[in-house]
Every structure is written in C-alpha cells, then in structure tokens.
Amino acid sequence: MIDVVMPTYARADLAFVRGEGVYLFDEDGRQYLDFASGVAVNSLGHCHPHLIKALGEQAGTLWHTSNLYRVPGQETLAARLVAESFADTVFFCNSGAEAVECGLKMIRKFHSDNGHPERCRVIAASNGFQGRTLATVAAGGQEKHMAGFAPIPDGFDHVAFGNLNEMRAAVTEQTAGILVEPVQGEGGIHTASMDYLKGLRDIADEFGLLLMFDEVQTGLGRTGKLFAYQWADVAPDIMTLAKGLGGGFPIGACVATEHAAQALSAGTHGSTFGGNPLAMATANAVLDVMLKPGFMDRVDAIAETLWKRLREMAEANTDVIEDVRGAGLMIGLKCVGDSAVLKSALQDAGLLTVGAGDNVVRLLPPLIIDESHVDEAMDILNAVVRSKP
Fold first, then answer.
1. Does residue 161 sit in the same domain as residue 276?
2. Are residues 305 and 218 located together in one domain of the fold?
3. Is residue 359 a part of any domain in this protein?
4. Are 129 and 181 members of one domain?
5. Which residues contact residue 54 at a Cβ distance below 8 angstroms, ignoring those fewer than 6 apart?
6. How far is CA 57 from its chain centroid?
7. Which residues make beta-bridge pairs with 253?
8. Are residues 187 and 309 part of one domain?
9. pLDDT in tens, the chain (389 residues)
10. 255 and 314 in one domain?
11. Does 3 fall in a domain?
C-alpha cells in the first residue's frame, strides 16, 4: 500500500517538533546542531524573534488578496532588492523553480519581441540544478533528474561548468541566453572563478545574449555577500532568488534589468500566490536583519573561521576527506568513501548536513552561527571523521 504522503523522498526516520536559533529538537527532545538549514533556507536560524513578530502581525491582518490588486509589501521588498542589486524590477513567486521558469520565459520573449523568435535556446552548465519542473530539469541536464520523464522539453544546450571556450563554441544563431549557478549546489559545490563569471558577461555582450545567474541557493548572504555575483563585480541581466529570502517561508523572486524585463508585459506571466502579504512581510523582515551594518562582514568572518578549521581537519584525515570546497557558508566536503555514510554518522552524532552530487556532504549553517557553534560542529566532525566511517 502506498504511503498517504507520496513517497517521493528518501526521508531520514527523524521528525523535528521544535527549532530555536541554530538548533532543532526531535520528538524525543534530542537536540541537533542544524548545519542543513532546510537546504540553505533557514538563513536566520529557527524562530528568529524579528521574523516571528513580522509574520505574526501580518497573519493577524491580511493573508492573501492575489495579484489582481496592489500588494504594498511587494513594492517595499522589490524596491529594497533593486536598491541592493543590479536589477530594476522584480517578479515574485513561490519557489526557486518558478523563479527560473520566469527567467527562461523572459529570455525567449525578449528575443521574440525583438524580431528573433528563432533565438530560443539557452546554454547551461553541465551538472547544474535549476529545479524539478520539466523545464528546469531540462535546464539542469542531469540524467538522474530527467529519467522517466521523456520527452524532455527542448531548448537547452550544455557545456562544462567553468569552461569559457566550450561556452563560446556552443553559441549559435538560435542561442538566446546563458544560465549558470555561481556555485553549483546540488551538483557538488563547484565554485565558479571570478574570471569565469566575467567571461560569461563578455560572451553574452558579444553575441547579444541575456545572462542569467541562478542564485536560489547562493543569494541572500550564503557566500558572505548579499549576492554571489557581487564577489566578481559583474552583473547578470536576470537573477533568480528563493531559499534564504524567506528565512523558511516559501518565496521566490526573479529580478532583472529593465532591458531584459521589458518583454514581460501584463498578461505574459503570473502567479496566484506569488508575493502574498505573508511572504512579503517575512522576506522584508529577513532583509531588516541582513541589511544591518556589519551583518555580512560577520558572516564572512565566521565563514573564514569555519573554513580554517575544516581545512585542518581535512589535512589530518585525507583518507576520509578529499577536499573542502565552496564559498562562504556554502561548503562541500568531498568524501573518499561514501558521502551518505558520513552524513548519516554526523546525524547520529547530532550534526545535520545535506547530501550533494559528486560524493559531497554539504554544510549550510544558518548565517547567524558564532564561534561556539563552529567549535561544537568541529568537535562532532573531528570525532566522526577520526572514526573512519
């Protein structure tokens, strides 16, 4: 008999009933240090007082009106995202996949409106992850996500991540845009170099393409800046956000320049739930915290501390950890043995992590961790790694 909850996940036999700061508590009251953050979603940890207050006040006032009417919270949040980024305008939705879908439609419609409907293909990086809709699994190009869902939507070409020569060679008269994650998350925490991101901008400009960065996981402070593209001092035309933007409340956003977004006029795209007052109140509260002076500097500093300790651990245990990679508080431990075994052993010891491709264990702690949490995590990591799981 099938489960009443559709069995689309290989879930751990673990249920949490309460969260506080960087900790989760299970049904038996056991405490876990959460370095998974709901897959990089709980950017400010669990039950952050400011988020509780903002969401509670909004819940007692107004939940939903639809996008048939103005939503003042959208206007506030959009203005803040525009002020802090390259963008001129924002579309709100409910997830990262929806944000990517919006960006892909924008790319195609842009070229169609400019008299080139044949320019409909997007070049993406191999081993990427853009979501679970048919279009976004096609964009990601990973066979394990596409298997069984044929025919997969056409319109995507794939080249090696980090290879500008392959990217340039793949451009044809049908190419409309480029889609890349600054750090590939699910694919195994592969980090783009600054020169690679700048090179993508150069290629896009040379061939008249729209450049789209998927920052669903890297955005909102995960790498130590509000957006990962800011490290390279190069701006895309379109950027997708989700995960950390809501601090745990479902929200997605597609931000774009006026040049790119001119294609999406009234009636060309939409969302019933996207940008509802609850999501807007929560996301604005997240930005209240993240935009305080010194917040990102502190994230960058604590990330540097954690990286130093992780590298020391890896160097002392090369038979277990092959590499430490990533950016900021988006870190991958490339394992020698089965990464699932290490992830399970860490969970048993009280540290929650996330699996990824390329035999990697992801560390995605809340951005509010301090040195005491780094010490606690490293105590668990060192003990487990020394046991040679």
1. yes
2. no
3. yes
4. yes
5. 281, 282, 284, 285, 288
6. 28
7. 92, 241
8. no
9. 889 999 999 999 999 999 999 999 999 999 999 999 999 999 999 999 999 999 999 999 999 999 999 999 999 999 999 999 999 999 999 999 999 999 999 999 999 999 999 999 999 999 999 999 999 999 999 999 999 999 999 999 999 999 999 999 999 999 999 999 999 999 999 999 999 999 999 999 999 999 999 999 999 999 999 999 999 999 999 999 999 999 999 999 999 999 999 999 999 999 999 999 999 999 999 999 999 999 999 999 999 999 999 999 999 999 999 999 999 999 999 999 999 999 999 999 999 999 999 999 999 999 999 999 999 999 999 999 999 88
10. no
11. no
CA–CA separation, 370 and 340 (whole Å): 27
- Using a 10 angstrom Cβ sphere, with 0-12 exposed, 13-18 middle and 19 or more buried, the burial of residue 45 is buried
Residue span of the structural domain in which 252 resides: 51-290
Residue given tokens 């939409």 in the structure block: 270
Domain co-membership, 147 together with 184: yes
Q: Which residue has the tokens 């431990």?
A: 333
Q: Give the whole-angstrom CA distance, residue 34 versus residue 366.
A: 8
Question: What CATH number corresponds to the domain at position 155?
Answer: 3.40.640.10
* Closest listed residue to residue 181, CA positions, set 220, 231, 219: 219
Q: Give me the amino acid identity at 243.
A: K
pTM of the predicted model, to two decimals?
A: 0.97
